[in-house]
Amino acid sequence: MRTGLAFNFETYHAERQRLIEERLAQYLRGDDPSRLWEAMRYSSLSAGKRIRATLCLAAAEAVGTKGGTSSDSFNQEAVEIALPCACAVEMIHAMSLIHDDLPCMDDDDFRRGKPSNHKVFGEAMALLAGDSLLVYAFETLLAQSPIDIPRERLSQVARELAAATGARGMVGGQVADMAVTGQAHEPFNAEQGAQILRQIHERKTGALIRFSVWSGAALMGASENALNSLARFGEILGLAFQIADDLLDVTGDIKTLGKTPGKDLAAGKLTWISVYGEQVAREKLNDLEIEGQQVLTESGLVEAGLRPLQALLTYAIHRSH
Ligand code: GRG
Description:
With 321 residues, this protein is mostly helical. The chain contains 15 helices and two strands.
């Protein structure tokens, strides 16, 4: 274990991104049929922030941190336990971006500063690359996780990942989103708009982010109290991440964002901006930052080990892309 003097988030994040990308490249080196694997790698290995995978590692490291450990130490054991799961989450995330960009969904030509998957490989291959990534994520989690993780724990993690991805999670959220797209300017009553928005966000983005934090801790065998606190922290961070995303859609530019800005607004999507306005959205972000830090202190985990999670919340809120 390496230890340093003070916690530096940029260094922490860059090192976790490198680890995640190295391992993703290793898992995704299949070559037959070669065009399919190429399409899977094209989206999975392109320049993402890796926030979900980093959250998974950070939660595992927080649980694995014992008193007296420096917060920028590299907890090799925790990282090895959580890396297959972190990569599985990134594969599912990449799959959702590929499908989201298809002409039948958001129809976006750019993603992560590059042409979208279907622009390079065609719609049929993009669809199949997404399908393969979805199932390969589960294969990776189940086949690559260390053998000494209790099987019951691993199967619970796989079950939760399926729930976060499917009809009760991301897919359900996408469908709920599609159902109201184009209606942002309709006369929703305020309460109704807010309720629909909450249901979309909790499932479409929130569920996978919550899972990312929870799973890192669950794989480490965290106590029930720590698990509950970290799951709640994941919900708070998921909502904050989405509000920041909605704000970036109106304030960002294509070069920094790596995708087309203003699309939510143009499509008449229900977002935090269309329902509450920019000012309220920013106030909510402040509240969530405070609430998230508070929830972490209730986890009972060692303070030094929580610093990466604290910093990830701040990053999710203040990021520029
Ligand atoms: C077929 C299982 C299945 C799902 C597809 C298309 C779809 C259903 C769901 C859409 C989910 C989606 C794309 C939500 C948007 C989430 C979001 C804010 C993405 C941007 O995430 P970042 O900022 O991106 O973390 P990077 O590029 O940094 O990884």
